[in-house]
Specification:
single chain; 218 residues; alpha/beta; 7-stranded mixed beta sheet; two-stranded antiparallel ribbon; globular
Length: 218
């Protein structure tokens, strides 16, 4: 299938020998990056998936993009623009519908793969709209409750699976924040696997093998 036009700029890799409606992996990059970053993983991911790597809508200077801005304040330290994050949550949610319609992928087999800010956003989408997402692979992120849709805890999470991992010496997002993810999801009865690796804010090779293995089983 040819590349289509979506609400967001993106990279696309078709499924190899696709069935009629192949499963899809939608990638959400981190702050200051772009659609090429995670897409470099695409060749390593199972060929049965269509892979769509989205570009975040907010342009940063001198380069890179963001799903929402992060500000540094002397009193508050670092804080996120939650209104922008919620706007991006809604934008990506609409993009998922477009991907299903235009790329003819399986509506019941969408995996979000995020890194850092892309993970935070992936969690907010999956918890707000679990009917749209089957799997989340969340690398080096955490759950920001402020950007979840009101009443999210009443959603049906019975078909949602989450794999999340973090570097134990992450200097950007403290590992303590990530360690709250599994208890939070367990509390909602969401199937969640959590791993730590002895790295900073990045993805260790063994982390990549583990997430691929997890994906094969889900």
């Amino acid at each position: 299938m040819e590349k289509q036009t979506l609400l967001l700029e993106h990279n696309y890799r078709p499924a190899h020998n696709p069935t009629e409606n192949p499963p899809a992996i939608i990638m959400l990059h981190g702050f200051g990056s772009d659609e090429n970053d995670l897409f470099s993983f695409a060749a390593e991911l199972p060929k049965k998936y269509a892979v769509i790597s989205l570009k975040a809508p907010i342009r940063l200077e001198p380069y890179g993009n963001a799903w929402y801005n992060i500000y540094f304040d002397n009193d508050q330290g670092k804080f996120s623009d939650d209104e922008q994050a919620i706007a991006s949550r809604e934008l990506v949610s609409k993009c998922i519908d477009e991907v299903i319609e235009k790329y003819k992928v399986a509506s019941n087999n969408i995996t979000l793969l995020g890194f850092s800010q892309g993970t935070i956003l992936s969690f907010s989408i999956a918890l707000s709209y679990p009917e749209k997402v089957k799997n989340v692979i969340g690398l080096s992120g955490y759950i920001n409750e402020e950007i979840l849709k009101e009443g999210y805890s009443n959603n049906d999470f019975s078909t949602l699976n989450i794999y999340t991992s973090h570097g134990s010496v992450d200097q950007v997002i403290p590992v303590e924040w990530a360690r709250k993810t599994k208890p939070f999801l367990d509390n909602l009865n969401i199937n969640c696997s959590y791993s730590e690796f002895p790295v900073g804010h990045g993805v260790a090779p063994q982390n990549f093998f583990e997430l691929k293995d997890w994906l094969e089983k889900h």
